[in-house]
Write a structure and sequence with these properties.
heterodimer; A: 819 residues; alpha/beta; Rossmann fold; six-stranded mixed beta barrel; B: 447 residues; 3 domains; four-stranded parallel sheet; translocase (chain B); NADH dehydrogenase activity (chain B); EC 7.1.1.- (chain B); NADH dehydrogenase (ubiquinone) activity (chain B); Nuo51_FMN-bd (chain B)
Chain lengths: 819, 447
């Protein structure tokens, strides 16, 4: 299945049905359907290589030849035709290899020709065992080859990128990879070069296949010509056990297939979910799965003993944590991070309220500006996101009349959202607009129009959109999580939606954010959009939880929790996955953790929180436990256990044990129980929280020696999940500072720019961008550092956030000086 | 030229020099010499007529495409949709098939005939840009065309407000990069757009979505060059030449083992016997063995076809194709195996690689042919050749694959024993290659 359309259009389509006869069987299909696709519907499998339902037809391999004795007008084609390029005509008659000897001979002939130059290295080929060429040559080819000549050979393999390798002699030149790169990803970095039998896939010498989507070409290669450096020669398909799962690296909830062997995941492939990711996934979702295998994996509980953390048994560690938390009473802050499955997030939400008795819980780790803006975002999430169920969907994006993006880079931050928007642009000419300081790469590839915006000015631009942007009920306003950093912007986005009827979609970066919102991991929110401030909502939740009453005092947000911990207002912290450098000023986090009286950390891998914790409770990796994410659409994406481990502990299981120790039953221990209780809670039917009413600010003004910072995270950077993924990281985009020619000239910037604040300075290569708004400098929020491990985070060096001022100056190079 | 393009009644003289009439003139390629012969008068006439009348005139003349396929030119012009998009004329001057040699001499000798044809044709179907896609290797032709176009611009025949009559036309001479496949019209368009030349999927056809996605007419050099004479002479004059379903005259190129190789312009329907009589026949002391009526892509003929009228239908009925009227003549000293092998090496070299049958088939066929030529063929090789040809012909993406297997099929049909002899005896023993050479070096002179 690859067709994505609403049920409403399906009804309309029925009128456009065309009836044809294939091998004597009548079938009615929508107008414009390809013959090969119509044959699939009645179970006739025509062999093919170049054909792919999501790529434009090319007709290159000629494997799918059929006879068409009648085109529907009484006349037939004199020669066999490629069924992947011919669309159905009313009354058409088709004879496949099942009924036509000529079609069968044509197919066998092409198969033989495909094999004459193909090496017989199946026993050592990664594709052997799951190879369309191998399979179809068995089902549709001759047993013996008549070819006794010379095969073409090439040095093998060559790199198309650090990750994607090409064995040219295996290639059948079907052009799937080149068409994918050009059509789907919009990164036409591979092309067929040379001609005749020497034709081959090639790259431009200075531009390898460094695409965020390159791994898909490996999966759709119908032979073993394309392999990944990470998986090549690591396993045979028939030794692998496959488990369908869900990807965790963005908020799309892409279906994936996880293949493991003897307790170790060997690779991940895109699953086929036409409603969500179709058949594609990002390279991060495909290749980044070894993050739990390093030395930093926590394998046993740790308990602080003076200056050192020493291993402890589970009972000892639980007791220690319980003792510390009991002392703190309800003076505990809970930071969960944005990567948890919804069941675990629910566990934290309930633990905070029902066990600890506090609303000081927040999943967010955001670099709010110096004034903080967590309250507006919390109000926005409560009013417009939480408990709204399935809202805007991928299909809605595809069929939208227009899309406006604010605080959002579709490719770096949107994952599959980018592919779907690009598809809409290619297929239906979707009009899209991006509020940004310059048109980002991903937006350019979907034909978006730039709405030039100085960071910090988004609220004003949304309030008064430039002429030419017309939004209606079929339009979508995409709000990225970054928009929360701009005071008044979320308020303005909601107002714009109300004014135009355009629907709003909040698309965060992390997989667990929407789930955390639904679970109520916010200081103002109970599960499924129940406003904390609403007594009937509290009663409703308390009834299901079987507790007397819930704390009604609104909680602190993440930054406030940390500051309160530093100042002694909070005595203890319970921390899930939180990374200090995700905040504007990481020192606030570190100081908060260090000054808190007692810190319990639930982590899979040792982190900066571990170092500062009093009790460390190791939790399972995603592949070791079941759970579910809720993607940005509001769609539940459950995933099963992949690798069964005897003592895998989810966050939820640990929280239940802590609750036991504290003398309150959490009531849920397993994923299934949490799901059941969430279902029991159900949607909130009472009044929703009010929309935020935050005032818009004005952007900073600049004077030439400084600039307004624009920044977001790249798809591949120094993220902790990418540690150890050496090959993948080599395909990341270069970290450069982008600014306009005028801004650069004003600060005498040529090759390099030093960006500084009172906190520190960092040097980037400068890149002039034609459409960049003057007075703005764009930096990647994080980057892979070429100066050794640890990477580079703007927060660490500059402690500054998007929309704030940074000083900029050119690097003066002294001729002849040694670096 | 004035004589020929005035509406003279059809002369029984088998030679009808129209396009070639001025080739013998002193510096016939200069615009002044072309004008002295009456050149560009037809353009003036045409620009005074309604555009639709010109299209109708070409339809009435029954001119069929001179590039090989023989599609009626007027009908091609009539297919263009009226969708507001710009229309383009592309002249296919990528002549590069073995044996084909009519467009290059025409553009060398009288480039203005083509330029005038382009001006009239573009006006007729309302194109304001015309491109001449010339094979990249023929630098001398490219330079001559560029000069002719420059001259025509200076004289006001091209450019803005042509001849002061309010029509604009830009003509661009574009050099290809040396690929036979770019003679295929859609591959030509890709190449012209700056891509790698590979045939496009049809539909959409170029008439609907061609160059830059706009309606495009692609015509052969000779077809377009014929237009001025039709405008000057009228449809009746043109249809007075030739045969039914093959009206008018055409340039025939004779090459190979003939006394006087070259181009000769005669009405369609003339036979090879007549052409040989006019030009002086097979080389001294030899007899015709086989020949191609339309270049290497047309099935070969033998002496039994000497009296086959060379027009579209008669040649097709006899089992071949008129194609580009490239008559390659081979006498009895020629090994048909060797000739076919050379042709196949050409097709293997020129296969673009896009589709499997052509790419892999030519690779394989050449290997079998080479061993047959070397006398190392294996029992069953002829059947294998025929079977592979069957798997390639009609299965490939464009006509190149069909063309590649044509010489093999027809050669085996007529000379199967020569192929079977290749199971034991090298071709160079059966047909000593030195006897085959036309311009043999005297003994003892180093090659």
């Amino acid at each position: 299945m690859t067709v994505t359309q609403n049920s409403s259009t399906e009804v309309e389509k029925k009128e456009d049905l065309v009836t044809i006869t294939i091998d004597g069987v009548e079938v009615s299909v929508p107008k414009g359907t390809l013959v090969i696709r119509a044959a699939e519907l009645i179970g006739i499998d025509i062999p093919r290589f170049c054909d792919h339902p999501l790529l434009d037809p090319v007709g290159a391999c000629r494997q799918c030849m059929v006879e068409i004795p009648d085109m529907g007008n009484g006349r037939g084609f004199p020669k066999p035709q490629a069924s992947c390029t011919i669309t159905v005509m009313p009354g058409m008659k088709v004879e496949t290899q099942q009924t036509s000897a000529r079609a069968e001979k044509a197919q066998k002939g092409v198969m033989e020709l495909l094999l004459i130059n193909h090496p017989l290295d199946c026993p050592i080929c990664d594709k052997g065992g799951e190879c369309p060429l191998q399979n179809q040559s068995l089902s549709h080819g001759a047993g013996e080859s008549r070819y006794d000549g010379v095969k073409r050979i090439y040095p093998k393999p060559i790199n198309l990128s650090a990750q994607v390798l090409l064995d040219r002699e295996r290639c059948v030149l079907c052009a799937r990879c080149t068409r994918f790169s050009e059509q789907i990803a919009g990164d036409p970095f591979i092309k067929l070069v040379e001609r005749g039998a020497l034709q081959q896939v090639g790259i431009y010498e200075r531009q390898p296949l460094e695409s965020y989507w390159s791994g898909n070409v490996i999966q759709i290669c119908p032979v073993g010509a394309l392999t990944s450096a990470d998986y090549r020669f690591r396993a045979r398909p028939f030794d692998l056990v496959s488990v369908p799962s869900v990807a965790e690296h963005d908020s799309s909830g892409s279906a994936i297939r996880v293949d493991y062997r003897r307790g170790t995941v060997m690779r991940r492939l895109a699953g086929d979910d036409p409603e969500v990711n179709e058949e594609w996934i990002s390279d991060k979702d495909r290749f980044a799965f070894r993050y739990g295998r390093g030395e930093d994996r926590l394998t046993t509980p740790l308990v602080r003993d003076g200056d050192v953390l020493r291993p402890a048994s589970w009972p000892e560690a639980i007791d220690a944590a319980v003792e510390g938390l009991r002392k703190a009473g309800n003076s505990v802050g809970v930071l969960t991070g944005g990567r948890l499955p919804v069941e675990d997030a629910y566990g934290y939400s309930k633990f905070a309220r029902a066990v600890l008795g506090t609303n000081d819980i927040d999943f967010r780790a955001r670099p709010y500006g110096s004034n903080g803006n967590g309250a507006e975002e919390a109000d926005f999430l409560a009013a417009a996101v939480a408990g709204t169920g399935r809202g805007v969907t991928f299909s809605d994006l595809e069929n939208a009349s227009a899309v406006l993006m604010a605080g959002f880079e579709p490719e770096d931050e949107g994952g599959i959202v980018f592919l779907r928007l690009r598809k809409a642009f290619r297929k239906t000419g979707l009009k899209s607009f991006q509020l940004a300081a310059y048109l980002s790469d991903g937006a350019a590839k979907m034909g978006a129009t730039l709405v030039p915006t100085v960071p910090g000015d988004e609220a004003n631009v949304l309030a008064e959109l430039p002429a030419g942007i017309e939004l209606d009920e079929k339009s979508v306003i995409i709000v990225g999580e970054r928009l929360a950093l701009v005071p008044g912007a979320l308020t303005a986005a909601l107002e714009l939606s109300g004014r135009t009827g355009a629907r709003l979609a909040w698309i965060p970066r992390r997989a667990g954010e929407r789930g955390a919102v639904e679970a109520g991991c916010l200081p103002n929110l109970l599960p499924y959009g129940r406003p904390l401030a609403d007594p009937s909502a509290r009663v409703d939740v308390a009834a299901v939880w079987g507790t007397g009453s819930l704390p009604s005092e609104p909680g602190r947000d993440a930054e406030e929790i940390l500051i309160a911990a530093s100042g002694g207002q909070l005595e203890a912290l319970v921390v899930g996955g939180v990374q200090p450098s995700d905040f504007r000023d990481p020192s606030i986090v570190r100081v908060g953790l260090e000054n808190a009286g007692f810190v319990v950390s639930l982590e899979a891998r040792a982190s900066e929180v571990t170092e500062r914790a009093d009790v460390v409770l190791p939790v399972a990796l995603l592949e070791e436990r079941s759970g579910s994410f809720i993607n940005w659409e509001g769609r539940e994406r459950p995933f099963p256990v992949v690798i069964k481990k005897p003592n895998a502990m989810s966050d939820l299981r640990v929280l239940a044990a802590l609750a036991d120790g504290l003398g309150t039953d959490l009531g849920v221990r397993t994923t299934e129980q949490a799901r059941a209780e969430l279902a029991e809670l159900g949607a909130w039917e009472g009044e929703r929280a009010a929309a935020p009413q935050a005032a818009a600010g004005n952007p900073e003004s600049v004077d030439g020696s400084n600039a307004v910072l624009s920044t977001w995270r790249l798809h591949l950077d120094d993220a902790r999940v990418l540690e150890g993924e050496a090959t993948l990281i080599r395909t990341a985009r270069r970290a450069v500072a982008r600014l306009s020619a005028r801004t650069a000239a004003g600060a005498a910037i040529t090759d390099q720019v030093v960006v500084s604040t009172d906190r520190g300075a960092v040097t980037f290569e400068a890149e002039i961008v034609d459409d960049m708004v003057d007075g703005v400098i764009w930096l990647p929020t994080r980057a892979i550092s070429d100066r050794g491990p640890g990477g580079l985070a703007v927060s660490e060096h500059l402690a500054v956030s998007s929309g704030e001022l940074v000083r900029i100056e050119g690097v003066v190079r002294i001729e002849g000086a040694q670096a | 030229m004035t004589e020929t393009i005035s509406a003279e009644p059809y002369s029984p003289d088998p030679i009808t020099p129209v396009l070639t009439a001025n080739w013998g003139d002193d510096r016939a390629w200069k615009i002044t010499n072309y004008e002295r012969r009456g050149g560009y008068k037809a353009l003036r006439t045409a620009l005074q007529q309604p555009q639709g009348d010109l299209v109708q005139l070409v339809k009435d003349s029954q001119l069929r495409g001179r590039g090989g396929a023989g599609f009626p030119t007027g009908n091609k012009w009539g297919f263009l949709p009226d969708n507001g998009a710009p229309r383009y004329l592309v002249v296919n001057a990528d002549e590069s098939e073995p044996g084909a040699c009519k467009d290059m001499p025409l553009m060398m000798a009288s480039p203005h005939t083509l330029v005038e044809g382009i001006a009239i044709s573009s006006y007729a179907f309302n194109a304001h840009y015309a491109f001449i896609y010339v094979r990249g290797e023929v630098l001398h032709v490219i330079r001559r065309l560029q000069q002719a176009v420059r001259e025509a611009y200076s004289a006001g025949y091209l450019g803005r407000n042509m001849l002061g009559m309010g029509y604009d036309l830009e003509v661009i001479v574009h050099a290809g990069a040396g690929a036979y496949i770019c003679g295929e019209e859609t591959a030509l368009l890709d190449s012209l757009e700056g891509r790698r030349g590979q045939p496009r999927l049809k539909p959409p056809f170029p008439a609907v979505a061609g160059l830059y996605g706009s309606p495009t007419v692609i015509n052969n050099v000779e077809s377009i060059s014929t237009i001025p004479s039709i405008v000057a002479g009228g449809a009746d004059w043109f249809t007075s030449m030739g045969v039914d379903n093959g009206k008018g005259m055409g340039i025939f190129s004779l090459s190979g083992h003939v006394r006087n190789p070259g181009q000769i312009e005669v009405p369609l329907g003339t036979t090879l016997r007549q052409l040989l009589d006019i030009t002086g026949g097979i080389r001294e002391g030899h007899q015709l063995k086989f020949w191609t009526p339309g270049g290497s892509s047309s099935p070969i003929f033998t002496a039994e076809h000497l009296d086959t009228p060379l027009d579209y239908d008669s040649v097709a009925k006899a089992g071949s194709m008129l194609g580009t009227r490239s008559l390659q003549i081979f006498d009895e000293t020629t090994s048909v195996v060797r000739a076919v092998t050379r042709w196949l090496e050409f097709y293997k070299h020129e296969s673009c690689g896009k589709c499997t049958p052509c790419r892999e088939g030519t690779w394989w066929l050449v290997q079998i042919l080479k061993r047959i030529e070397a006398g190392q063929g294996q029992e069953g090789d002829v059947e294998k050749l025929l079977d592979i040809c069957d798997n390639v012909g009609g299965k490939s993406f464009c006509a190149l694959g069909d063309a590649a297997v044509t010489p093999i099929n027809s050669a085996i049909k007529h000379f199967r024993d020569e192929f079977e002899a290749g199971y034991h005896t090298p071709a160079w023993e059966l047909f000593p290659y030195e006897k085959n050479v036309i311009y043999a070096q005297p003994a003892g002179v180093a090659q």
